[in-house]
Design goal:
Belongs to the cytochrome P450 family. This protein is α+β, with helices and mostly antiparallel strands. The protein is built from 17 helices and ten strands.
């Protein structure tokens, strides 16, 4: 019996060793990029989700870049992943969307954003939804929306100037959420019985967290926040169906019309996931960018001076100085766009963009196996000293004379390829209009938490407090 037990134990040990060996040394019809697959099943998940407390590239990526080079392999939440910090490979991946690669996100992300979310859809369905969104965020719609954006900025700034302090991230998030929710679903936070944004706050706090769905964890709170927000959206959908409007007044009306068409390919699940993603993406990321721009400008007086002069010149050229911004004036803001480009380069609001290889792909001597995930890492490109001199420094003049009509090898703040963010113009309009209203009428100072903003990465930092006053007043 003892000998039989020893044989069984030895056999199990051999199986385990063989399994561990295969885990650490995946099969490949070629040469895999260097790297480590970490522990079986767990991989390097814990290291991947470790918080970044610096303004530099996340330690998980930076340490492995130094050890293995710009392209390396790892394993996260049980999935083999190729991480690319190589601008050429990133550009190649974006250009081969739908041919060699397709959009993909870990199961934890699809659980958070919805299994029918626009990022998980492909081909004709993705193009169909993209065209729907452009109906809201396209240039012609933004031209009509600009007066509302400016009015919202003016009203909020006026209110903030009467307060002893303003926490910029929270304040701008509220401002943009109110505007976006109104355009999307006619939501009015002041007259609604439910606080829709509270659900998104809970959702955001666990967005980049270790994926354990246990009560008390950030990830569990994130899923609960999504559940509550989706329940509110579904209730609203049912109310609209029961009492349809005669004319379109928001994006939800447009979505309802699409759902009611006999030949529609839109489903209720896809429509609700789309509304959820739009509400999240349109305000939370933009508020972070505005907060960082405000801090950068305060910390760099020469940049603030040039930006202020540009916007004051716009007002001086008007026949009526009190008239609102025009689309032509917006398009003339050269230095403003330089400030925006530099802010989003440093902010790295999207720290990772995921794709999946549809078949074996050979690149620079390495093979990316079919079915493997690829993580494009924008911060590693945006903070590369070989591409950007003093990459951690805020320097909007580095963009002087640079025309950006989309993504490039060295700039992918809004993604790239056919999945280039359709809300890019909306973000830029909101940032430019807010900065116009801010620098032409107000001065501000940091009064608390000026060093709490950390980039890069989707961290949504709070703690940056300022005091505002109108320019004909002194800051007390």
């Amino acid at each position: 019996m003892i000998s039989v037990g020893i044989c069984i134990g030895a056999f199990l040990l051999i199986i385990i060793i063989h399994w561990v060996y295969n885990w650490r040394n995946p099969r490949c019809n070629g040469k895999l990029p260097p790297g480590s697959m970490g522990w079986p099943l767990l991989g390097e998940t814990i290291q991947f989700f470790a918080p970044n407390t610096s303004s530099d590239i996340a330690p998980f990526v930076k340490d492995r870049m130094q050890r293995y080079g710009p392209i390396f392999r790892t394993s996260v939440v049980g999935r083999p992943v190729i991480v690319s910090t190589d601008p050429d490979l990133n550009y190649f991946i974006f250009q081969q969307e739908g041919q060699l690669f397709q959009s993909w996100y870990p199961d934890t992300f699809t659980e958070i954003f919805g299994r029918q979310n626009v990022g998980s859809l492909h081909g004709f369905m993705y193009k169909y939804l993209k065209n729907m969104v452009l109906n809201l965020f396209g240039p012609e719609s933004l031209k009509k929306m600009m007066p509302e954006v400016e009015e919202a900025a003016k009203n909020k700034l006026k209110r903030w100037s009467g307060q002893t302090s303003v926490e910029m991230k929270e304040a701008t998030a509220n401002m943009i959420f109110d505007l976006t929710a109104k355009k999307l679903i006619s939501y009015d936070s002041e007259n609604s019985s439910e606080n829709l944004r509270e659900s998104f706050v809970a959702f955001i706090q666990g967005l980049i967290s270790f994926p354990i769905d246990i009560p008390g964890t950030a990830y569990h709170k994130c899923l609960q926040g999504r559940k509550k927000a989706m329940k509110m959206l579904k209730t609203l959908l049912e109310e609209r169906r029961a009492k349809p409007r005669k004319e379109q007044s928001d994006f939800f009306d447009y979505v309802l019309e699409e759902l009611q068409r006999k030949d529609t390919i839109l489903t209720e699940a896809i429509a609700l996931d789309l509304m959820f993603v739009l509400l999240f993406a349109s305000f939370e990321t933009t508020s972070l960018a505005i907060t960082l721009a405000t801090k950068f400008l305060h910390d760099h007086p020469l940049a603030l001076k040039e930006l202020t002069e540009e916007h004051e010149a716009i007002i001086r050229r008007r026949e009526n100085p009190a008239s609102g911004l025009t689309w032509k004036e917006y398009k003339s803001m050269k230095f403003t766009f330089q400030v925006i480009n530099e802010t989003v380069r440093l902010a790295n609001i999207v720290p990772a963009i995921f794709r999946k290889a549809l078949r074996d792909v050979n690149f620079k001597g390495y093979t990316i196996p079919a079915g493997w995930a690829i993580m494009v890492c924008p911060p590693a490109v945006h903070l590369n000293p070989a591409k950007y001199q003093d990459p951690l420094e805020f320097n909007p003049w580095r963009w002087e004379g640079v025309e950006l009509n989309g993504a490039s090898r060295n700039f992918m703040a809004f993604g790239g390829g056919m999945r280039f963010c359709v809300g890019t113009d909306f973000t830029k309009v909101q940032m430019a209009v807010f900065l116009h209203s801010l620098v032409t009428k107000y001065r501000w100072e940091t009064i608390q938490g000026g060093d709490t903003l950390r980039t890069p990465g989707l961290q949504f930092p709070n703690g940056y407090h300022i005091r505002l006053s109108e320019k004909d007043e002194k800051i007390q």
